[in-house]
Every structure is written in C-alpha cells, then in structure tokens.
Amino acid sequence: MNSVQVMVMEHDYILRMLNVVRKACYKVMKGEDINYDDFYKMIEFIKNYADEHHHGKEEKFLFKEMQTKLGKLGENLITHGMLVEHDLGRLYMSDLRDALERVKNGDEESKLDIISNAVGYTHLLKRHIAKENDAVYKFGETNLPKEIIDEINLKTEAFELEAEKKGTQKYYVDVLENLEKRYL
C-alpha cells in the first residue's frame, strides 16, 4: 500500500469511531449514565490513533512536502486549511475531556459541553476526511514529483512498521471494535 492508501484506510477506522462517539452522545442526551471509561477510550483513540498516528504521518510527510513544494496553493491549502482543522479537532478533544471532568464533579449542565464538543468533532472530522480523500491527497499525488511521492511512501512504510512493532494499529482497532460492540 502506498502512503495515501494507508491514510484512506485509517480514515475508515476514524469514521467508524465517529459513529461510536455520536451514539455515546445520544445516550447522554437521553439521560443515560455516562460511561466515563468508554469516553476516555474514545478520546484515547482520537488522540493517539487519529491525531498522533494518522495526522502525524500527514503532517510530517505528505503535508510538509505539499507546503514546501507546491507553491502558494499548497501552502495555503495545508497551513490555512488542513492544519487549522487538525488544531480545531485537538481543541474539541481537550474541551471534551474538561467537560467530562466537570460532570464527574457534579456539574450536570456540562453534559451539554460533552455533547457539543464530541458531536462538533464528529462533524469537523467527517468533512475534513472527505476533503482529504476527495481533493487534498489527489492534489498532492498529482502535483508532487514522483521522487517525492516515493520518499513519502518509504517514510510512511517505516513509520507504520515501527508502530506495528509497538502494536499501535492492532491495539486501536481492538479498542474501536470493542466500543462498536457496545454502541452500534
């Protein structure tokens, strides 16, 4: 698999987690007890798999080359588009964690913040993933020189192998599948 194929496959896992997050929020909305451990697992998946593992490859390899090699259009697309959305996603997750803590400490009104941050994140990421899959990745593959694409593919392969040695992919797919059994 080349780097873009790996990233698209990861998007599929991330989209599945977004469905879990939404279903968990629906339970909160209906007044069911919050399963804090499950929410923390969702946040862990998003922080470590979606952000550090997946976005890490995008930011270190593909996006970096697009910023430096594709002129003003590449710079603007990545710097003022994709990276801004990555940062916004991080803010949603930070605010979600804070809201969970407030509710645990008795602030019932912060359930609104749990739902709004979690669902806001799902909406952001669904649109973000569609842009990457349908436009950003294709723009990069079409316009970056072949030798740069080959270098990105090699770096991605090495990154994936190192993560595989640590069990990263398997661990987070297992987390996802366990949460899907409870929420979907």
TrEMBL record:
Pfam family, one: Hemerythrin
Domain Hemerythrin-like, chain residue ranges per copy: 4-138
GO cellular component, one term: plasma membrane
InterPro entries: Hemerythrin-like (IPR012312)
Highest taxon in the source lineage: Bacteria
PANTHER family associated with the record: BLL2471 PROTEIN-RELATED, HEMERYTHRIN-LIKE DOMAIN-CONTAINING PROTEIN
Name of this chain's protein: Hemerythrin domain-containing protein
UniProt organism field: Sedimentibacter hydroxybenzoicus DSM 7310
